[in-house]
Design a protein that fits this description.
Radius of gyration: 22 Å
Structural class: mainly alpha
Strand content: under 5%
Number of strands: 0
Helix content: 55-70%
Length: 105
């Protein structure tokens, strides 16, 4: 065996023995603030008490729906992990997205 053949064999054996990682679960797959807002707007969190479309815009405008409410609905639906509520940057970004949603109309 040559050195190149030995090295290639080692790479093949090492690759074959590498552990297989599982695909992330829905809760582990992180959504962006834009995606959370978009899902909320389309009514995807209606079952969690967040209405879609005009009713969402109205709730945001009157202050009855805030970023934390939308994030909690995404968590309840299994689309976000609960840790995002502790991420002030994420919460602030969702808040900005919601405000932009109201401001554009």
């Amino acid at each position: 065996m040559t050195i190149a053949t030995t090295a290639l064999s080692l790479v093949i054996v090492t690759s074959a023995m590498a552990p297989v990682t599982e695909a992330p679960t829905i809760a582990e797959a992180q959504l962006t603030p834009f995606e959370v807002t978009s899902l909320a707007y389309r009514g995807s969190f209606d079952e969690a008490g967040i209405p879609g479309y005009g009713a969402l815009e109205s709730g945001i405008a009157t202050g009855t729906i805030v970023a934390e409410d939308v994030i909690e609905a995404a968590i309840a639906s299994g689309r976000l992990s609960a840790e995002v509520l502790e991420d002030s940057s994420f919460v602030g970004s969702v808040d900005n997205q919601l405000e932009n949603l109201v401001d554009r109309n």
